[in-house]
Design brief:
The protein is of the alpha+beta class. It has helices at residues 23-32, 63-68, 79-90, 137-146, 163-166, 180-184, 209-230, 243-249, 280-288, and strands at residues 12-17, 37-38, 45-48, 53-58, 74-78, 99-103, 109-116, 131-134, 152-155, 171-176, 187-196, 198-202, 232-239, 257-261, 264-274, 292-298. It folds into three domains: 3-106 and 198-228, D-Maltodextrin-Binding Protein, domain 2, CATH 3.40.190.10; 109-196, D-Maltodextrin-Binding Protein, domain 2 (3-Layer(aba) Sandwich), CATH 3.40.190.10; 231-298, 2-Layer Sandwich (Alpha-Beta Plaits). The chain is built from nine helices and 16 strands. Strand 2 and strand 3 (45-48) form a beta hairpin. The longest helix is centred in the C-terminal third of the chain and has 22 residues, at 209-230. The protein is globular, with a radius of gyration of 25 Å. The structure holds phosphoribosyl ATP and zinc ion.
């Protein structure tokens, strides 16, 4: 019996989006971190099978509140939603906040100010007195305040992009990824209010020291999976004399391993863990510096 099977151990809860843009990638990330759940099709709750870590499947908008109220210990949600809800919560409780433990490199988008295509744009000041439609009133208000502009915020829960053509707003603040929706509605993005991607947040729950240790372990694994997906193991042969120049080319590599090559005193084998993205340009630069037999391998798991 492991320490985690003890009946006295509390269970940790992780909230993710039930269905939508972040749902599948969030679940995959947890599964790749070694967590396994007893899936149930309709239920909002999946019981953790191999560790006392359960899953709550909810609307993304509910995740920050569940975290702020300590109902969940961890949550994966877009920074846009988390920041909006934190600002909203602070209106009644000034010190409300959530710790962002890691950005997760999916669900990338921008919250942007957009105007009708034909309208000229010079600066935020021209928005003074304008009506701005958005589902993100707090982030929009915050941005307007930063630019010292007073405008009227029109809250809409969806279909924000049609507000200008309906005549209910002069501008919008909405999420943009490819920009197709804006173009289809004859709108033009002119300012970025905030950039966003999915992130891992710590809830405001208190845990026993055992559960806190388990939570740390889960977080470390998630960060490890996240880091491994960006990390590559690079192997090649190179002239011994060029090692210093070659080390400069390798992105995010610390102290590569240098091994002798049988029967070749002037060439060595180099193995390096590159923690930043490896592009074709890096490989071409290695080749120009005399490297050959260059291999780039994915890294499945990492514990640093
Ligand atoms: O049901 P639930 O409330 O859980 O889901 P939801 O409908 O509120 O959210 P969902 O699944 O649409 O999005 C979840 C999160 O994905 C958002 O909070 C963002 O963090 C992130 N994300 C990334 C996006 C987009 N990209 C995005 N493009 N969320 C919404 N969009 C919208 C955008 O506003 C536009 O209307 O998708 C449309 C297409 O965008 P374009 O620019 O590609 O045309
Ligand atoms: Zn939502």
């Amino acid at each position: 019996m492991s320490a985690y099977d003890s009946p006295s151990t509390e269970r940790i809860r992780i909230a993710i989006q039930k269905s939508g843009r972040l749902a599948e990638t969030s679940l995959k990330l947890l599964e790749r971190s070694g967590l396994s759940f007893a899936r149930s099709k309709d239920k909002l709750f999946w019981y953790g099978r191999n560790l006392p870590v359960d899953l709550l499947l909810v609307r993304d908008d509910d995740i920050p509140r569940l975290l702020l109220e300590g109902m969940c210990d961890l949550g994966i949600v877009g920074q846009n939603v988390a920041r909006e809800k934190i600002l909203d919560a602070r209106r009644s409780t000034a010190d409300d906040d959530l710790d962002e433990l890691a950005t997760l490199d999916f669900g990338h988008c921008r919250l942007m100010l957009a105007l009708p295509e034909q309208q000229a744009y010079q600066s935020p000041q021209q928005l003074s007195g304008a009506r701005i439609a958005t589902s993100y009133p707090q982030l929009t208000r915050h941005w307007l305040q930063q630019h010292d502009v007073e405008a009227k915020i029109v809250f809409l829960n969806g279909a924000v992009e049609i507000a200008p053509s309906l005549g209910t707003a002069d501008a919008i603040v909405d999420l943009v990824s490819t920009g197709t929706t804006l173009r289809a509605n004859h709108l033009r993005a002119v300012e970025t209010v905030t950039e966003s991607q999915a992130a891992l947040y710590r809830g405001r729950s208190t845990l026993s020291s055992d559960s806190a240790a388990l939570l740390d372990k889960v977080v470390q694994r998630i960060q490890g999976v996240q880091q491994a997906s960006e990390t590559k193991y690079v192997m090649f042969h190179a002239p011994r004399a060029e090692l210093a120049a070659i080390a400069e080319i390798l992105p995010g590599a610390e102290s590569p391993t240098v091994l002798p090559l049988e029967g070749q005193s002037d060439r060595v084998a180099v193995h390096a863990l590159c923690t930043e993205q490896v592009f074709w340009g890096h490989l071409e630069a290695l080749k120009s510096a005399g490297a050959s037999a260059i291999l780039v391998l994915p890294v499945e798991k990492m514990l640093v």
